[in-house]
Amino acid sequence: MKNIIIENILDLISKLNLLELSDLIIKIEQKFNLKNENIVENIKKNKFDIFLKEIGDKKINLIKVIKEITNLSLKESKDLVEKKNSLIKSGLDKEQCDEIVKKINSVGGKVEIK
Fold first, then answer.
1. Are 16 and 24 in contact (CB under 8 A)?
2. Angle at 37 between CA 11 and CA 3, to 5 degrees
3. What pLDDT digit, counting tens, does each position of 60-77 carry?
4. N or C: which end of the chain has fewer CB within 10 A?
5. Beta-bridge partners for 89
C-alpha cells in the first residue's frame, strides 16, 4: 500500500516544471525542518571522537586493545599508543563510545571524548 502512495506522489512530482519543483522542495524543507544546516548539526551532535590521553601501566595490553578496536597492525597500534593525544576512532555513536572507553579503561588507559 505504501509503495503505491509513494509511486503516485513521484508520478505527480514528475509532472511539475522546475519552478514548481523548486517551490515544492522549499515548502517540504520548511514543513519538516529539513535545512541542511539542521541535519549536519544533528549529525555532529550524535557523533563523537575518542582520543587517547594516558597510556597507564599496561602498555602492551593497551596496544592489543587499540589493535582490536581500530583493526590496525601491531606496529601501527603501537605508534598510535605512543603518540600523545592520538585519535583512536571518530564518528562514533554513544553506545560505541561507551564500549571502547570500557575496553581502554580496563587496561589502565584514559581517553577523552569530543
1. yes
2. 25
3. 999 999 999 999 999 999
4. N
5. 50
